[in-house]
Amino acid sequence: MIKTKYLIIGNSAGGVGAAEAIRKHDSSGTIIIVSDEPYPVYGRALISKYLSRERIFEDILYRDQDFYKQNGINALLDKNVESVDTNTRTARLSDGETIAWEKLLLATGGTPIVPPMKGADKKGVFTFTKLNDAKALDGYLNNAGKAVVIGGGLIGLSVSEALHKRGLGVTIVEMKDRILNVMLDEQSSHMAEDNLSNSGVQVKTNNTVAEIGGGESVTHVILSDGQKLACDLVVVAIGVSPRKNIAAAAGIEVNRGILVNRQMQTSMPNVYACGDVAEAYDFIYDICRPVPIWPGAYLGGMTAGANMAGGEAEYPGVTAMNSLGYFGLDIVSAGMVIAPDDSYELLVDESNGNYKKLVLKDNYIKGMVFVGDIDKSGIIFGLMKDKVDVSQFKQKLLTDDFGLIHLPEPMWRQRLECSL
Amino acid sequence: MAKVYLNPDVCIGCGLCSVYCTVEHSGTKDIIKTFNSQPERPQSRVRIEREGINAFSIQCRHCQEPWCVYSCLTGAMSKSAANNTVEYAANKCVGCWSCVMVCPNGVLARDVSTHQIAKCDLCPGRDVPACVANCPNEALTLMTDDGKIINGFSEDMVVENIVID
Asked: ipTM score of the complex?
């Protein structure tokens, strides 16, 4: 049996954010991080840069190679946690080892969703959330010419761009009537779709893959409308679901994800959760819900770590927020991008080929979309996050020269003084 | 920590800080070559704002709660434990613009020449950053690690022992 003060399950943004926060409060308490991946922490979004061969492994590392040593962290890589017991405060690894812990963080992330599909077990069917997925795909590209990507969301676009850069013909199949439908409104979706088409990527909306065909390996897919598309590989990029099975089995309260409060504590004492596996606070909707984004995982981990080590931290919350630049088109979206009803006010600017839209409620910003010129999106995001009443300068928000100087003078003077 | 401060009461919005920032971050550091010959000159790390009688320039404020660090997908942005500044490792940046999305001051600029972020780095290799050294109105000052305030107007850099509380 190994004993540790802090056990962190998961070695990505959440786990690392927690370890860093723990070390700020507790320089010597033992930390173990367990990960089922064999790698030190890397930027998960960068696996597409790895697949496109723009970056080698060493260049997608999130922290330096000696991060674990420097911070006195015992990283148990390539190990699976089979179960945790919150009464005896232990965790069992699949290799038979038992770890006794005082504080536990579940940062187990998400599992790619693969819906039941005929032929999904054929050679040439991939998911795309981990470095090993990128490596598996990379090893399959030698004789591949055509790819079908199922899902027109963030992961689908990222893998499509990488495959396109590797010279493959790519078709994206999206079930809904438009791509990126979770994070964009109709107009920005269509701008993104036009940009894909102009780049040579086919997009088929209102369609799903009914069947993956071929012998041992993929040779084609059959869509729900009957079309048959020849392809050498299929990437299933529909989304991820919280990987909560260990928590649920341990009797920790779960809904879609593990329930946590603003301190990132679960229903069990001394047990915390963060990242894609958790249902944490969303500051726009003012509820807890799964928001599987990297900044949320890191901030949640930071909050959990501080509290695990005896500090007092409250999770500020995040909201659905994404920045994407696929195929050369910069897009930023955050919060409520579609007004739920007509009590909301819309501000839209479409000058110079850009698209900017804000969703306001009673003079508070609740959502934003920027396509093309995204340079001022951060100022808007800050006003949204900090819940600033914009009534005094609302008409300036989307103008080209908008800046801090349009905020009330005490506010911009404060900004110059570095007070945030 | 060392940081550039601006006194908005004496800033006239001339924009020289931005000009010299661009020059300093160009390969040649020559103002004529930077603005005439370079097809894609570097992005200035400072932004000038003007409205009515007010004007100021602004660059990274090294936030206490640095959302750029929290949001960075690659680890390029970090908060230095030693001097509390927000630091940027260009070699790790892939231009995902996550930091642009969250910077409350809008001072992380997309640099089209590198497809990376342009962020104030306090001009490594110089005692006084180019913006401070070339501010004609002494509106920009550098506060050093030990609390000294340096103006850049005179050639030998007037050093005053004023400590801001």
From this structure: 0.96
